[in-house]
Amino acid sequence: MKKVIGMALVLMLAFSVAGVWAEEVAGKIKMFDSTQRMIVLDDGTQLWVAEGLAIDTLKDGASVKASYEERDGKKVVTELEVSE
Q1: What are phi and psi of 57, to 5 degrees?
Q2: What is the mean pLDDT of each run of 10 residues along the chain (84 residues)?
Q3: For residue 19, what pLDDT is reported?
Q4: 44: phi > 0 → left, psi -120 to 50 → alpha, else beta; which?
Q5: From start to end of 7-73, where are the E strands?
Q6: Phi, psi for residue 76 in degrees, rounded to 5
Q7: The domain 23-83: what is its CATH number?
Q8: Per-domain residue ranges for the chain?
Q9: Do 59 and 44 meet the contact criterion of CB atoms below 8 Å apart?
């Protein structure tokens, strides 16, 4: 029984810490560089889209909502929603 409770506590802690690292941002794309997979939002936020995420719908002026993680000093997008 102690093992089950211990594992449950470890999992709860892991999920709560993981949630702290993810951030969300929304805005309009000011500039998109497909070569670097980089987005600059209208507020100046720079985001790099992770490999595996589609970039074909990204274009200047599109609105985006993104979840990202800090990796090596860059904001790397892990989830992306695009609307016109």
Answers
A1: -95, 0
A2: 59 52 91 96 96 93 95 94 88
A3: 47
A4: left
A5: 23-33, 38-41, 46-49, 63-71
A6: -100, 120
A7: 2.40.50.320
A8: 23-83
A9: no
